[in-house]
Write a structure and sequence with these properties.
The protein has about 425 residues and is of the alpha+beta class. A hairpin with a 5-residue loop joins strand 5 and strand 6. About 40% of the residues are buried. The longest helix is centred in the middle third of the chain and has 21 residues, at about 145-165. The protein has two domains: about 1-230, CbiD-like (2-Layer Sandwich), CATH 3.30.2110.10; about 235-425, no CATH class. The strands form six sheets. A five-stranded mixed sheet has the order 7-8-9-12-10, covered by helices on one side. The chain has a five-stranded mixed sheet with strand order 16-15-17-18-19, sandwiched between helices. A three-stranded antiparallel sheet has the order 1-2-3, with no helix packed on it. It is about 35% helix and about 20% strand. Mean pLDDT is about 85; it is low at about 1-10 and about 185-190. It is elongated and about 95 Å long.
Length: about 425
Protein backbone atom coordinates (compact mmCIF):
# COMPACT_ATOMS: atom_id res chain seq x y z
CA UNK A 1 0.00 0.00 0.00
CA UNK A 2 1.62 3.25 -1.15
CA UNK A 3 0.70 6.74 0.01
CA UNK A 4 0.91 9.49 -2.59
CA UNK A 5 0.84 12.50 -0.28
CA UNK A 6 2.40 13.57 2.99
CA UNK A 7 -0.52 13.39 5.45
CA UNK A 8 1.04 16.18 7.52
CA UNK A 9 1.01 18.65 4.61
CA UNK A 10 -1.88 17.84 2.33
CA UNK A 11 -5.11 19.83 2.37
CA UNK A 12 -6.43 18.01 -0.69
CA UNK A 13 -8.00 14.55 -0.89
CA UNK A 14 -5.60 11.84 0.20
CA UNK A 15 -5.20 8.67 -1.86
CA UNK A 16 -3.69 5.25 -1.34
CA UNK A 17 -2.94 2.43 -3.74
CA UNK A 18 -4.30 -0.99 -2.88
CA UNK A 19 -4.46 -4.05 -5.10
CA UNK A 20 -3.42 -1.89 -8.04
CA UNK A 21 -6.25 0.62 -7.55
CA UNK A 22 -6.02 4.29 -6.58
CA UNK A 23 -8.50 4.84 -3.77
CA UNK A 24 -9.62 8.06 -2.10
CA UNK A 25 -9.44 8.21 1.69
CA UNK A 26 -12.30 9.62 3.71
CA UNK A 27 -12.83 10.98 7.20
CA UNK A 28 -14.04 9.16 10.31
CA UNK A 29 -17.18 9.78 12.29
CA UNK A 30 -14.85 11.28 14.89
CA UNK A 31 -13.61 13.88 12.40
CA UNK A 32 -17.19 14.68 11.39
CA UNK A 33 -18.24 15.09 15.02
CA UNK A 34 -15.27 17.37 15.75
CA UNK A 35 -15.96 19.51 12.67
CA UNK A 36 -19.65 19.85 13.50
CA UNK A 37 -18.91 20.65 17.15
CA UNK A 38 -16.32 23.24 16.16
CA UNK A 39 -18.79 24.98 13.84
CA UNK A 40 -21.59 24.88 16.42
CA UNK A 41 -19.29 26.38 19.07
CA UNK A 42 -18.35 29.18 16.68
CA UNK A 43 -22.03 29.92 16.05
CA UNK A 44 -22.77 29.94 19.78
CA UNK A 45 -19.97 32.42 20.45
CA UNK A 46 -20.61 34.77 17.53
CA UNK A 47 -24.34 34.43 16.93
CA UNK A 48 -23.64 33.96 13.21
CA UNK A 49 -24.17 30.86 11.11
CA UNK A 50 -21.17 29.33 9.31
CA UNK A 51 -20.97 27.48 6.04
CA UNK A 52 -17.72 25.54 6.44
CA UNK A 53 -15.70 24.00 9.25
CA UNK A 54 -12.01 23.16 9.15
CA UNK A 55 -10.13 20.90 11.55
CA UNK A 56 -6.76 19.20 11.51
CA UNK A 57 -7.00 15.47 12.07
CA UNK A 58 -4.65 13.53 14.38
CA UNK A 59 -3.30 11.84 11.27
CA UNK A 60 -2.31 15.20 9.77
CA UNK A 61 -4.61 16.07 6.85
CA UNK A 62 -6.96 19.02 7.16
CA UNK A 63 -10.67 18.18 6.99
CA UNK A 64 -12.77 20.91 5.37
CA UNK A 65 -16.43 20.08 5.79
CA UNK A 66 -19.58 21.73 4.52
CA UNK A 67 -21.80 22.73 7.43
CA UNK A 68 -25.40 21.62 7.03
CA UNK A 69 -28.60 22.65 8.81
CA UNK A 70 -27.10 25.42 10.97
CA UNK A 71 -29.45 26.65 13.70
CA UNK A 72 -29.05 29.11 16.56
CA UNK A 73 -31.37 29.70 19.52
CA UNK A 74 -31.28 33.04 21.34
CA UNK A 75 -32.32 34.17 24.78
CA UNK A 76 -33.46 37.72 25.42
CA UNK A 77 -32.26 39.20 28.69
CA UNK A 78 -33.31 42.56 30.16
CA UNK A 79 -30.93 45.31 29.10
CA UNK A 80 -28.98 42.99 26.76
CA UNK A 81 -28.63 43.96 23.14
CA UNK A 82 -28.33 41.98 20.95
CA UNK A 83 -29.92 38.76 22.19
CA UNK A 84 -27.42 36.24 23.56
CA UNK A 85 -27.10 32.85 21.74
CA UNK A 86 -27.71 29.99 24.16
CA UNK A 87 -27.69 26.99 21.81
CA UNK A 88 -26.31 26.19 18.37
CA UNK A 89 -26.58 23.09 16.22
CA UNK A 90 -25.31 21.93 12.83
CA UNK A 91 -24.37 18.77 10.96
CA UNK A 92 -21.59 17.35 8.78
CA UNK A 93 -22.17 14.54 6.33
CA UNK A 94 -19.87 11.55 6.72
CA UNK A 95 -17.53 11.13 3.76
CA UNK A 96 -15.92 7.69 3.82
CA UNK A 97 -14.06 8.16 0.54
CA UNK A 98 -13.87 4.93 -1.44
CA UNK A 99 -14.34 2.79 1.67
CA UNK A 100 -17.63 0.81 1.65
CA UNK A 101 -18.46 1.87 5.22
CA UNK A 102 -22.16 1.81 6.04
CA UNK A 103 -21.95 5.19 7.81
CA UNK A 104 -20.85 6.98 4.63
CA UNK A 105 -23.44 9.62 3.75
CA UNK A 106 -25.05 9.78 7.16
CA UNK A 107 -25.34 13.05 9.08
CA UNK A 108 -23.32 13.59 12.24
CA UNK A 109 -24.86 16.40 14.28
CA UNK A 110 -23.45 18.50 17.11
CA UNK A 111 -25.34 20.68 19.56
CA UNK A 112 -23.35 23.11 21.71
CA UNK A 113 -24.91 25.04 24.59
CA UNK A 114 -23.85 26.86 27.73
CA UNK A 115 -23.51 24.70 30.81
CA UNK A 116 -23.25 25.30 34.51
CA UNK A 117 -20.44 22.75 34.67
CA UNK A 118 -17.01 24.26 33.96
CA UNK A 119 -15.06 22.92 31.01
CA UNK A 120 -16.26 21.07 27.93
CA UNK A 121 -18.53 18.10 28.56
CA UNK A 122 -19.41 15.65 25.78
CA UNK A 123 -22.32 13.23 25.55
CA UNK A 124 -24.23 11.30 22.95
CA UNK A 125 -27.74 12.01 21.74
CA UNK A 126 -30.12 10.34 19.30
CA UNK A 127 -28.54 7.54 17.28
CA UNK A 128 -25.32 7.33 19.32
CA UNK A 129 -24.88 4.03 21.14
CA UNK A 130 -24.48 3.46 24.86
CA UNK A 131 -21.88 1.14 26.34
CA UNK A 132 -23.40 -1.72 28.37
CA UNK A 133 -20.39 -4.04 28.74
CA UNK A 134 -16.97 -3.46 30.29
CA UNK A 135 -13.77 -3.68 28.30
CA UNK A 136 -14.49 -1.08 25.64
CA UNK A 137 -12.91 2.32 25.06
CA UNK A 138 -15.55 4.04 27.22
CA UNK A 139 -16.98 2.94 30.60
CA UNK A 140 -20.37 1.28 31.02
CA UNK A 141 -23.14 3.84 30.72
CA UNK A 142 -21.15 6.30 28.64
CA UNK A 143 -21.94 7.32 25.09
CA UNK A 144 -19.97 5.31 22.54
CA UNK A 145 -17.77 8.25 21.60
CA UNK A 146 -14.21 6.99 21.79
CA UNK A 147 -11.43 8.87 23.53
CA UNK A 148 -9.66 10.15 20.41
CA UNK A 149 -12.85 11.70 18.96
CA UNK A 150 -13.51 13.23 22.39
CA UNK A 151 -10.03 14.72 22.33
CA UNK A 152 -10.60 16.01 18.79
CA UNK A 153 -13.90 17.64 19.76
CA UNK A 154 -12.36 19.31 22.81
CA UNK A 155 -9.21 20.48 21.00
CA UNK A 156 -11.11 22.02 18.09
CA UNK A 157 -13.63 23.78 20.33
CA UNK A 158 -10.73 25.15 22.39
CA UNK A 159 -9.19 26.46 19.16
CA UNK A 160 -12.44 28.30 18.42
CA UNK A 161 -12.43 29.69 21.96
CA UNK A 162 -8.84 30.89 21.57
CA UNK A 163 -9.78 32.82 18.43
CA UNK A 164 -12.79 34.32 20.22
CA UNK A 165 -10.64 35.36 23.19
CA UNK A 166 -8.20 37.12 20.89
CA UNK A 167 -11.04 39.11 19.37
CA UNK A 168 -12.39 40.11 22.79
CA UNK A 169 -9.11 40.66 24.60
CA UNK A 170 -10.01 44.20 25.61
CA UNK A 171 -12.93 42.90 27.69
CA UNK A 172 -10.91 40.38 29.68
CA UNK A 173 -8.53 41.34 32.45
CA UNK A 174 -5.15 39.63 32.77
CA UNK A 175 -6.02 38.34 36.25
CA UNK A 176 -9.31 36.86 35.08
CA UNK A 177 -7.67 35.33 32.01
CA UNK A 178 -4.99 33.63 34.13
CA UNK A 179 -7.55 32.24 36.58
CA UNK A 180 -9.87 30.89 33.90
CA UNK A 181 -7.43 30.17 31.04
CA UNK A 182 -8.54 26.57 30.51
CA UNK A 183 -12.29 27.19 30.71
CA UNK A 184 -14.82 28.32 28.09
CA UNK A 185 -16.41 31.72 28.52
CA UNK A 186 -19.47 33.62 27.43
CA UNK A 187 -19.84 37.13 26.08
CA UNK A 188 -17.95 38.55 29.05
CA UNK A 189 -16.27 37.35 32.26
CA UNK A 190 -19.57 37.94 34.05
CA UNK A 191 -21.30 35.33 31.90
CA UNK A 192 -18.60 32.69 32.26
CA UNK A 193 -19.80 29.09 32.02
CA UNK A 194 -18.86 25.77 30.53
CA UNK A 195 -19.97 24.19 27.28
CA UNK A 196 -22.09 21.09 26.79
CA UNK A 197 -21.67 19.17 23.53
CA UNK A 198 -24.20 16.59 22.33
CA UNK A 199 -23.27 14.44 19.31
CA UNK A 200 -26.13 12.76 17.42
CA UNK A 201 -26.70 10.66 14.31
CA UNK A 202 -30.33 10.68 13.11
CA UNK A 203 -29.90 7.40 11.21
CA UNK A 204 -27.62 5.87 13.82
CA UNK A 205 -30.01 3.41 15.45
CA UNK A 206 -30.96 1.80 12.13
CA UNK A 207 -27.35 1.70 10.93
CA UNK A 208 -26.11 0.13 14.17
CA UNK A 209 -28.00 -3.08 13.46
CA UNK A 210 -25.60 -3.64 10.54
CA UNK A 211 -22.47 -3.16 12.67
CA UNK A 212 -20.72 -5.12 15.42
CA UNK A 213 -22.18 -2.81 18.05
CA UNK A 214 -24.96 -5.15 19.23
CA UNK A 215 -22.40 -7.92 19.67
CA UNK A 216 -20.10 -5.59 21.60
CA UNK A 217 -22.88 -4.54 23.95
CA UNK A 218 -23.30 -1.07 22.47
CA UNK A 219 -27.02 -0.36 22.25
CA UNK A 220 -29.15 2.28 20.60
CA UNK A 221 -26.88 3.53 17.86
CA UNK A 222 -23.52 3.77 16.15
CA UNK A 223 -20.14 4.59 17.68
CA UNK A 224 -18.09 7.71 17.05
CA UNK A 225 -14.70 6.28 16.15
CA UNK A 226 -11.30 6.98 14.71
CA UNK A 227 -7.69 7.14 15.87
CA UNK A 228 -6.19 9.14 12.99
CA UNK A 229 -9.36 10.87 11.80
CA UNK A 230 -8.79 9.33 8.37
CA UNK A 231 -10.63 6.42 6.77
CA UNK A 232 -8.38 4.27 4.61
CA UNK A 233 -10.45 2.34 2.04
CA UNK A 234 -10.92 -1.31 2.98
CA UNK A 235 -8.60 -0.74 5.90
CA UNK A 236 -6.95 -3.71 7.58
CA UNK A 237 -6.63 -1.56 10.68
CA UNK A 238 -10.40 -1.19 11.04
CA UNK A 239 -10.94 -4.97 11.02
CA UNK A 240 -8.14 -5.61 13.50
CA UNK A 241 -9.47 -2.92 15.85
CA UNK A 242 -12.90 -4.58 15.77
CA UNK A 243 -11.28 -7.89 16.74
CA UNK A 244 -9.45 -6.13 19.57
CA UNK A 245 -12.70 -4.60 20.87
CA UNK A 246 -14.51 -7.96 20.87
CA UNK A 247 -11.67 -9.61 22.77
CA UNK A 248 -11.49 -6.84 25.34
CA UNK A 249 -15.22 -7.18 26.06
CA UNK A 250 -14.98 -10.96 26.55
CA UNK A 251 -11.91 -10.65 28.77
CA UNK A 252 -13.59 -7.97 30.89
CA UNK A 253 -16.55 -10.31 31.35
CA UNK A 254 -14.29 -13.00 32.78
CA UNK A 255 -13.65 -15.36 29.86
CA UNK A 256 -10.32 -17.17 30.21
CA UNK A 257 -10.25 -18.51 26.66
CA UNK A 258 -11.15 -16.78 23.40
CA UNK A 259 -13.13 -18.74 20.82
CA UNK A 260 -12.25 -17.62 17.29
CA UNK A 261 -13.77 -18.26 13.87
CA UNK A 262 -12.69 -16.88 10.49
CA UNK A 263 -16.25 -16.11 9.38
CA UNK A 264 -19.91 -17.04 9.29
CA UNK A 265 -19.31 -20.73 8.49
CA UNK A 266 -17.31 -21.11 11.68
CA UNK A 267 -19.86 -19.06 13.60
CA UNK A 268 -22.73 -21.26 12.41
CA UNK A 269 -20.76 -24.44 13.16
CA UNK A 270 -20.01 -23.41 16.74
CA UNK A 271 -23.51 -22.17 17.50
CA UNK A 272 -25.32 -25.13 15.95
CA UNK A 273 -22.95 -27.97 16.85
CA UNK A 274 -21.79 -26.80 20.27
CA UNK A 275 -24.51 -24.36 21.30
CA UNK A 276 -22.27 -21.34 21.80
CA UNK A 277 -23.86 -17.93 21.86
CA UNK A 278 -22.84 -15.73 18.93
CA UNK A 279 -21.56 -12.95 21.17
CA UNK A 280 -19.00 -15.34 22.71
CA UNK A 281 -17.31 -15.94 19.35
CA UNK A 282 -14.78 -13.54 17.87
CA UNK A 283 -14.83 -13.32 14.07
CA UNK A 284 -11.26 -12.81 12.86
CA UNK A 285 -11.69 -12.87 9.07
CA UNK A 286 -8.27 -13.66 7.54
CA UNK A 287 -6.25 -12.11 10.35
CA UNK A 288 -5.07 -15.26 12.08
CA UNK A 289 -1.73 -14.07 13.43
CA UNK A 290 -3.03 -10.62 14.43
CA UNK A 291 -5.92 -12.24 16.31
CA UNK A 292 -3.56 -14.48 18.23
CA UNK A 293 -1.36 -11.53 19.15
CA UNK A 294 -4.40 -9.57 20.33
CA UNK A 295 -5.59 -12.50 22.44
CA UNK A 296 -2.19 -12.68 24.12
CA UNK A 297 -2.18 -8.92 24.62
CA UNK A 298 -5.64 -9.08 26.24
CA UNK A 299 -4.39 -11.64 28.76
CA UNK A 300 -6.33 -14.77 27.78
CA UNK A 301 -4.97 -18.13 28.86
CA UNK A 302 -5.63 -19.69 25.49
CA UNK A 303 -7.67 -19.76 22.31
CA UNK A 304 -9.80 -22.17 20.34
CA UNK A 305 -9.92 -21.65 16.59
CA UNK A 306 -12.74 -23.32 14.65
CA UNK A 307 -13.08 -23.12 10.90
CA UNK A 308 -13.31 -24.77 7.51
CA UNK A 309 -10.31 -26.73 6.31
CA UNK A 310 -10.02 -24.40 3.32
CA UNK A 311 -8.93 -21.61 5.65
CA UNK A 312 -7.28 -23.45 8.49
CA UNK A 313 -5.03 -25.68 6.38
CA UNK A 314 -3.14 -22.53 5.40
CA UNK A 315 -2.34 -21.89 9.06
CA UNK A 316 -0.92 -25.42 9.24
CA UNK A 317 1.63 -24.18 6.71
CA UNK A 318 2.52 -21.10 8.73
CA UNK A 319 0.44 -18.66 6.69
CA UNK A 320 -0.27 -15.66 8.95
CA UNK A 321 -3.04 -14.14 6.81
CA UNK A 322 -5.35 -16.56 5.03
CA UNK A 323 -6.57 -14.21 2.29
CA UNK A 324 -6.04 -15.59 -1.21
CA UNK A 325 -4.05 -12.49 -2.17
CA UNK A 326 -1.20 -13.89 -0.09
CA UNK A 327 -1.16 -17.09 -2.12
CA UNK A 328 -2.97 -20.42 -2.22
CA UNK A 329 -0.89 -23.20 -0.67
CA UNK A 330 -3.74 -25.46 0.41
CA UNK A 331 -2.90 -28.48 -1.75
CA UNK A 332 0.81 -28.02 -1.25
CA UNK A 333 0.41 -28.11 2.53
CA UNK A 334 -1.91 -31.12 2.44
CA UNK A 335 0.49 -32.93 0.12
CA UNK A 336 3.43 -32.20 2.39
CA UNK A 337 1.62 -33.61 5.42
CA UNK A 338 0.01 -36.59 3.66
CA UNK A 339 3.24 -37.88 2.12
CA UNK A 340 4.49 -38.75 5.61
CA UNK A 341 1.72 -41.33 5.95
CA UNK A 342 1.45 -42.51 2.37
CA UNK A 343 3.29 -45.58 1.06
CA UNK A 344 6.45 -44.47 -0.70
CA UNK A 345 5.47 -46.05 -4.02
CA UNK A 346 2.17 -44.10 -4.06
CA UNK A 347 3.50 -40.65 -3.16
CA UNK A 348 3.90 -39.36 -6.71
CA UNK A 349 0.45 -40.55 -7.69
CA UNK A 350 -1.07 -38.95 -4.57
CA UNK A 351 0.79 -35.74 -5.34
CA UNK A 352 -0.62 -35.62 -8.86
CA UNK A 353 -4.20 -36.23 -7.73
CA UNK A 354 -3.99 -33.54 -5.05
CA UNK A 355 -2.58 -31.06 -7.55
CA UNK A 356 -5.63 -31.66 -9.73
CA UNK A 357 -8.00 -30.75 -6.88
CA UNK A 358 -9.51 -27.28 -6.78
CA UNK A 359 -11.38 -27.57 -3.48
CA UNK A 360 -10.25 -29.07 -0.19
CA UNK A 361 -13.36 -31.26 0.03
CA UNK A 362 -12.22 -33.00 -3.15
CA UNK A 363 -8.73 -33.33 -1.68
CA UNK A 364 -10.19 -35.04 1.40
CA UNK A 365 -11.79 -37.64 -0.86
CA UNK A 366 -8.37 -38.31 -2.40
CA UNK A 367 -6.78 -38.65 1.02
CA UNK A 368 -9.51 -41.06 2.10
CA UNK A 369 -8.94 -43.28 -0.94
CA UNK A 370 -5.28 -43.51 -0.02
CA UNK A 371 -6.14 -44.27 3.60
CA UNK A 372 -4.32 -41.26 5.03
CA UNK A 373 -7.14 -38.79 5.70
CA UNK A 374 -7.38 -39.26 9.47
CA UNK A 375 -3.63 -39.09 10.08
CA UNK A 376 -3.26 -36.09 7.79
CA UNK A 377 -6.09 -34.26 9.56
CA UNK A 378 -4.62 -34.93 12.99
CA UNK A 379 -1.19 -33.71 11.96
CA UNK A 380 -2.75 -30.67 10.32
CA UNK A 381 -4.53 -29.82 13.60
CA UNK A 382 -1.31 -30.28 15.55
CA UNK A 383 0.54 -27.91 13.23
CA UNK A 384 -2.25 -25.34 13.40
CA UNK A 385 -1.96 -25.23 17.18
CA UNK A 386 1.81 -25.14 16.95
CA UNK A 387 1.78 -22.00 14.84
CA UNK A 388 -0.93 -20.35 16.93
CA UNK A 389 1.13 -20.87 20.07
CA UNK A 390 4.30 -19.72 18.30
CA UNK A 391 2.60 -16.49 17.16
CA UNK A 392 1.56 -15.84 20.77
CA UNK A 393 5.22 -16.22 21.82
CA UNK A 394 4.23 -19.09 24.07
CA UNK A 395 1.70 -17.09 26.06
CA UNK A 396 -1.37 -19.03 24.91
CA UNK A 397 -2.58 -22.59 24.88
CA UNK A 398 -4.17 -23.33 21.51
CA UNK A 399 -6.88 -25.78 20.49
CA UNK A 400 -8.64 -26.17 17.16
CA UNK A 401 -11.67 -27.73 15.50
CA UNK A 402 -11.58 -28.19 11.74
CA UNK A 403 -14.66 -28.99 9.70
CA UNK A 404 -15.46 -29.66 6.06
CA UNK A 405 -18.48 -28.31 4.22
CA UNK A 406 -20.60 -26.44 6.76
CA UNK A 407 -21.23 -29.00 9.46
CA UNK A 408 -19.07 -32.09 9.01
CA UNK A 409 -16.39 -32.13 11.68
CA UNK A 410 -13.08 -33.38 10.39
CA UNK A 411 -10.82 -33.22 13.43
CA UNK A 412 -10.47 -31.58 16.80
CA UNK A 413 -7.52 -31.42 19.15
CA UNK A 414 -7.61 -33.32 22.39
CA UNK A 415 -8.55 -30.41 24.63
CA UNK A 416 -10.98 -28.59 22.34
CA UNK A 417 -14.29 -30.01 23.55
CA UNK A 418 -13.21 -29.96 27.19
CA UNK A 419 -12.27 -26.30 26.83
CA UNK A 420 -15.67 -25.47 25.39
CA UNK A 421 -17.52 -27.31 28.14
CA UNK A 422 -15.45 -26.04 31.06
CA UNK A 423 -14.66 -22.46 30.09
CA UNK A 424 -17.39 -21.33 27.72
CA UNK A 425 -20.65 -23.25 27.98
Amino acid sequence: MTEHEDPKKTKTPRYIEKDGKRLRCGFTTGSCAAAAASAAAQMLLTGETVQEAEIRTPGGPVFRAQVLNPKIRYEDEPGQEPARPVWACCAVRKDGGDDPDITTGTLIEAEVSWSGEPGITIDGGRGIGRVTKPGLDQPVGAAAINHVPRQMITANIERVLDVWREGHAENISDAWREEHADMPLGKSPDTFSGLRVIISAPEGEALAARTFNPKLGITGGISILGTTGIVEPMSDRAVVETIRAQMNVLKAEGDKFAVLAPGNYGLAFLTQRYGLQEDRIVLISNYAAEAVELAAEAGFEGILLAGHIGKLVKIAGGVRNTHSMYGDRRMEILREIAREYCAEQEREKLKGELEDCVMTDAALEVLERYGVKEQTAQEMARRICGYLEEWSEGKLRAETIVFANKDRELVHTEGAEELLRREIL
